[in-house]
Amino acid sequence: MTGFLIGAWLTTTLVRYVSWIDFLSIRIKISNLIVVLAMMFLWHLIYRTFGLYQSRRLQSLYCSQRLLPNCIQEWQDIVKATTTGTLVFFLGAKILDIRLFTPFFALMFWLSTTCLTVSFRTILRSGLKQVRAHGRNLRFALIVGTNERAYSFAQMIEEHRESGYRVAGYVDDHVHVPKKGIELLGSHEDFSEVLRSRVIDEVIIALPIKSQYERIQRIIDQAEEQGIRVRCLPHLFNSRTYAQGMSMDQRLTVLDVASESQETGRMVAKRAVDIVLGSAFFFSTLPVMLVAAIAIKLTSHGPALFAQDRVGFNKRTFRMYKFRTMVIDAEREQERLEARNEMDGPVFKIQNDPRITRVGRWLRKTSLDELPQLYNVIRGDMSLVGPRPLPLRDYNGFTKDWQRRRFTVRPGLTCLWQINGRNHTSFEDWMKLDMEYIDNWTFLGDVRILLRTIPAVINGKGAA
């Protein structure tokens, strides 16, 4: 949203200063830069206060012509935010005696920010609607309960497929209300196992609160342990006036009771940084990658690239690419080397792996074998910074549900484990480092990890 702030400011300034000469003659001072940075921070805070960085995907379930007010709720929030922001800026300008921010300037600034934000959000929603209708950017919901309330929610999802929601199935001890097409994935006792074995983005609880309170609490705890978002369809809240923290229509009230949402504005901004920096790194390292590919082809038989299925965001599998550093059929040979595994837990690594080629050893020590993963970053499979992606074999060896919370963010090229010894770190400590990253993530933290990765790579710290 700071981009809209800058764009609106430039647009309004050009309207205020008719000629480019007048505009370019404005002096740039340190004090001006400080004021601009303070404005950007305040603008971000105001947008955050009005909920413009929260995911509104679920609200699209309730948008239809007969429920038009729900569709324009976002526009109303935008107008409230831009009005509040403009008034704050106008009062601040009067206090600081900033002559540029006249009443006319304030009006034009308000119109620019409002129009830019509404237009962008409308275009974005329309684009996402088309993408989701074609089976991309989906979220899979597991419904707990087999009653009319659960089926009403499922029907709403089916009626609004453009929302991107799909029903993964149901969990209940038995089907309480028979209905054609119900896929019962397990009982309440099987709930954790269902989360482990399937791609589940959200859990929708459709059980009656009064009689099932303890069971609901247990389900929330189990889902939260694995970092899965939980929503509740409570019979208790049928009032259309109870709107705090809810999404509603005439049939249902949906309450967020626990959340590990990755669709906040910060995640969108992180994705934008990944695209920009990932593309820059990819194209700038193409000559290095070309040399590495030639060296691999000249010194060993087989393709230069190695592709393997890895577990990504919310347990979705994706094809990860890296330079081949081992002999052909290295994965088949791993079984006979299992006894030499030097890592605890489900991960397999040995210091002097006989499968590694001469060039491959050098590529691993310098981490150049990871460069093709920049393509995965651009595609959206990975991020520049995040927990390292693990093979399916390693994921299947997880024994503790709290460790699976590492899959609630996109895997990354580098992470805290990467800069803290890699192979010299125990599996338990590795997972704790991933949890530390997820719980304390900031942009500045990502920058620090990226900067610390450089000396770690140069020194070959912990590399196999």
Would you kindly provide a written description of the structure presented here, covering whatever features stand out?
The protein has 464 residues and is α/β, with parallel strands linked by helices. It has three domains: 132 residues, no CATH class; 120 residues, NAD(P)-binding Rossmann-like Domain (Rossmann fold, 3-Layer(aba) Sandwich); 195 residues, no CATH class. It is 49% helix and 12% strand. The strands form three sheets. Strands 3-2-1-4-5-7-6 form a seven-stranded mixed beta sheet, sandwiched between helices. Strand 8 and strand 9 form a beta hairpin.
What key phrases describe this protein's structure?
464 residues; alpha/beta; Rossmann fold; 3 domains; 7-stranded mixed β-sheet; 3-stranded antiparallel β-sheet; 17 helices
